[in-house]
Amino acid sequence: MFTENIFSINHDFSDTYSTNFELGTRAFLYTNQETLFKTRQLELSHFSTLRLNLKSSISLGLKLRNRDWFEDSSSEIRLTQQFNTKTLLSTLRFGHRFRSEQRFYEDETVFRYRYRLALDVPLQGLKLDVGETYFVLYNEALWSISKISKPEFEYRISPSIGILLSKDLNLELGLEYRLDKLNMNTDHELFFNTSLDLKL
Questions:
Q1: CB-based contacts of 143: which residues, under 8 Å, 6+ apart?
Q2: Residue 169 pLDDT
Q3: What local confidence, expressed as pLDDT, does residue 30 receive?
Q4: Which residue of 37, 96, 102, 168 has the lowest C-beta tally within 10 Å?
Q5: Which InterPro entries match (predicted)?
């Protein structure tokens, strides 16, 4: 069982170009039948996004994940290419995200492909206003391949509750259930997630 916390800063430089910076941490909450709080990793990431139209965008990302400060494990440099598109049905919004990632470790490079379907809806009224809450459900399938490891399939589902604290500040709290190595010996992992999103 883990907890993952993310603080992100977003800025629109124009109607078509925006940037995002994130600082994230992950910690153990419960492992080997023991309750504890032990940091596992610290990560910093950046995305540059180009809006193609009102519904779609493309992004390039870079992530630096440090684990060797906290445990005997390889750190990671990750490159990401992303396509986003969204549709609206009444008050329900659907978001489709396609990602391609190259994950560079000390002893191998992993190529991962991801598809995420997100559904979110305001819990008061027809649109989200300051001080109001919303519900969001993330569903994601992942496929990883490398030269020295067998291909791995993963699935993640994450229900969350968010609140628009101000027009520029958003908070989300949720759970995430992960099924790793679905085509081998499946691992089950549970995350308690918190994200704070600031727009400058």
A1: 112, 113, 114, 151, 152, 153, 154
A2: 97
A3: 77
A4: 37
A5: DUF2490 (IPR019619)
Residues in the chain where the model's pLDDT stays below 50: none
Tally of CA atoms within 13 A in the half-sphere of 73 that contains its CB: 12
Residues 6+ apart with CB under 8 A from 21: 8, 9, 44, 45, 46
Query: Kind of pairing, strands 92-104 and 109-122?
Result: antiparallel
How many other β-carbons are positioned within 10 Å of the β-carbon of residue 58?
14
Q: What is the pLDDT of residue 175?
A: 97
**Domains assigned to the chain:** 2-199 (2.40.128.140)
What is the Cα–Cα distance from 117 to 139, expressed in whole angstroms?
5
Bridge pairing between strands 56-66 and 34-51: antiparallel
Q: How far apart are CA 45 and CA 59, in angstroms?
A: 13
> How far, in Å, CA of 171 to CA of 121, rounded?
15
- Residue 20 parent element (H or E): strand 17-31
What is the sign of the dihedral through the CA atoms of 122, 124, 130 and 133?
Answer: negative
| Residues making up the chain, counted from first to last | 200
